[in-house]
Amino acid sequence: MSGPQCCENPPTLSSSSGAGHEEELGGLKSYISGSLDSSLAVLLVSDIYGYEAPNLRNLADKVAAAGFYVVVPDFLRGDPYVPENAERPLPVWFKEHGTCPMIQLGHSPKVVVELAKYACVQAAVLLHPSFVTLDDIHGVKVPISILGAENDKMSPPELLKQFEATLNAKPEVGVPRV
Q1: Contact at 8 Å (CB) between 176 and 122?
Q2: Which of 6, 21, 69, 165 is 20–30 Å from 29 (CA)?
Q3: Domain boundaries along the sequence of the chain
Q4: Where is this region: Disordered (predicted)?
């Protein structure tokens, strides 16, 4: 989240007619797509707009169609950021979510980096790495792809190059094991 430009094009929430379904998993409402019999799984972590965002669910369905079991948990517990709510601008929304585990880590990029510190995760993909620091990257133990935004003041190209150098120096962060 580099600034207001990140919130300029929020998703339109509408009823999803996706291939997946909602169920409670680990105490959280979750969008589930794909076969439970799959030997491959993907955990998708939403941004501030939450697990109901149609594009996120469409992505989950596409990944599931490729043979994966996909889980999109509602880490925001039914309270995503709503740009139209003038009484809860983004700074207020973030402050109110200080007790949410995802928000305590910053937001979804931090969650991805934290998960990438465990060997039971085979690979990670990090989009828009705002709030991620070089210290966060030092603990990564699995292959990770970091896709930065072109104009992100919080994770500029210079920082992304430092991430890359740090990861390239770690032999355990090689090719994903699939």
Answers
A1: yes
A2: 6
A3: 20-103, 105-178
A4: 1-21
